[in-house]
Amino acid sequence: MLFRCHLKRALPQKVSCRFCAVMGKLQSKLKYSTYKYSRPDGFRDERTQTKAFQEYSPAHVDTVSVVAALNSDLCVSGGKDKTVVAYNWRTGNVVKRLKGHEREITKIACIHKSGQFFSASRDKMVMMWDLQGSSQPRQQFSGHSMVVTGLAVSPDTSQLCTGSRDNTLLLWDVGTGQCAERASVSRNLVTHLCWVPREPYILQTSEDKTIRLWDSRGLQVAHVFPAKQHIQTYCEVSEDGHKCISCSSGFGGEGCEATLWDLRQTRNRICEYKGHFQTVASCVFLPRALALMPMIATSSHDCKVKIWNQDSGACLFTLSLDGSGPLTSLAVADTVSLLCASFSRGIRLLRVDDSRGLELQEVAGF
Fold first, then answer.
1. Which residues 6+ apart lie within 8 Å of 144 measured at CB?
2. Which residues sit opposite 285 in a β-bridge?
3. Class of residue 45 by CB neighbours under 10 A (exposed 0-12, middle 13-18, buried 19+)
4. Edge-to-edge strand ranges of the sheet holding 201-206
5. With pLDDT > 90 as the criterion, what percentage of the chain qualifies?
6. Which of 140, 252, 308, 340 has the fewest beta carbons closer than 10 A?
7. Taking 90 as the threshold, does the pLDDT of residue 266 lie above it?
8. 36 vs 223, 305, 313, CA distance in Å?
9. pLDDT in the model for residue 113
10. pLDDT tens-digit map of 53-67
């Protein structure tokens, strides 16, 4: 779409040039993108859309490793620049930059509807931050001998569970910063942790290709799900605590899937979601307000975000974020928005639109 000045004959040169400048700025915010649309009947077509796209000031100067939603306006992210950033994704403004870690940030865990959150790092440390406080960490947790790769806060926010490549899980008292429990399982290189809502259980994925359910009361393994064929990179629990998703590493379409599990009595595998061609790094349950059917979303090192029918396993939509490099993290921002962290292009703000059938649009970046 090109804007040309047709007013030069009728208006003075200065006025017409201003008009061209305004139109040029508007044009720079319009972005063409091609995406694949998968209809429920299995037919796939390509659509080209033109939409307003806003490029905000970047949150980080290097690869973004993780992003998490703090509340309906703010997200918290971390990456290779060793900085934790609280960002208002609605306005495109940095709220606070926090420095304290000596190496790359690996995980973020937020206490929702508050200004408090935790960060983990390759420096083996975990730090607690408060947006209403100073720029110094409110609490520090030191106990792992290798990079911290798992971080989960209890529903009542009194406890923090951390996991590491040192095969160890630690349970902390948030108030005192003291370690209350320690557990170790051979070859259990932790990749992610999440706490089951309203329960004393913690879900954990591992490089040994298994998913474990831990009981925080004594920090004992309560259940081990059947091992997968590839490393389990991430896990997420549904809001009702009845189901969980895990996702797999892989390449060339081997592995590269997400798996839905029953967390109740049977604890069986319910469904698999196959279609990515490289490691699936993150997965989330989408808010039920988006559609009549339950849905999940996945992000992958293949630069794609996919939306799936949770029950049938059908891929409903694929968005390619070309040039972003591996997609590292995915978070639900509000009922229609997702935040996607990437290796090369910072954080992308994505919006679900069902006005013409289900679509996922890239609307901003920072």
1. 124, 162, 164, 166, 168, 170
2. 296
3. exposed
4. 190-195, 201-206, 211-215, 220-224
5. 79
6. 252
7. no
8. 39, 11, 17
9. 80
10. 899 999 999 999 999
Give the Cα separation of 202 and 222 in Å (integer). 9
- Beta 54-55 vs 359-365: how paired, if at all? parallel
**Predicted structure pTM score:** 0.86
Q: What is the CA radius of gyration of the chain?
A: 22
Distance, CA of 303 to CA of 128 (rounded, Å) = 31
Q: Can you say how many angstroms the Cα of residue 356 is from the centroid of all Cα atoms in its chain?
A: 26
Domains of the chain listed by start with CATH number: 233-365 (2.130.10.10)
Q: Which two tokens stand for residue 222?
A: 């309560």
Provide φ and ψ at 53, rounded to 5°: -130, 130
Amino acid at 312: S
Q: Which are the contacts of 180, defined by CB distance < 8 A and separation ≥ 6?
A: 159, 171, 172, 173
Backbone angles phi, psi at 27, to 5 degrees: -60, -35
The phi, psi pair for 7, rounded to 5°, reads: -110, 5
Query: Which pLDDT tens digit goes with each residue over 76-95?
Result: 999 999 999 999 999 999 99
- 3 state DSSP class of 185: coil
N- to C-terminal Cα separation, the chain: 24
Report helix, strand or coil for 192.
strand
Euclidean distance between CA atoms 338 and 284, whole angstroms:
10
Count of CB atoms situated within 10 Å of the CB of 265: 6
Distance (Å) of CA 6 to CA 12, 24, 30, 243:
12, 14, 21, 60
Task: Tell me the per-residue pLDDT of 212-237, one tens digit each, with 9 for 90 and over.
Answer: 999 999 999 999 999 999 999 999 99
